[in-house]
Amino acid sequence: MTTAYPPSSETLGTPDPLCITKEKEMDIYDEKFVEGLFNRMSKTYGSANYISSFGFTERWRKQCINQIKWNSKIDKGFDLMSGMGETWNLVNKESKNNHSLIGVDISPKMNEKAREKTNNYKLLKISIREENVLENEIDTNSGDYIISTFGLKTFSDEQLKLLAKEVNRILKVNGQFSFVEISKPKNLFLLIPYMFYLKFMIPIIGKLFMGNSIDYRMLGIYCERFKDCEKFKIHLENQGLKVELVKYFFGCATGVKGKKVYA
Question: Which domains occur in the chain, in start order?
Answer without folding.
Answer: 25-259 (3.40.50.150)
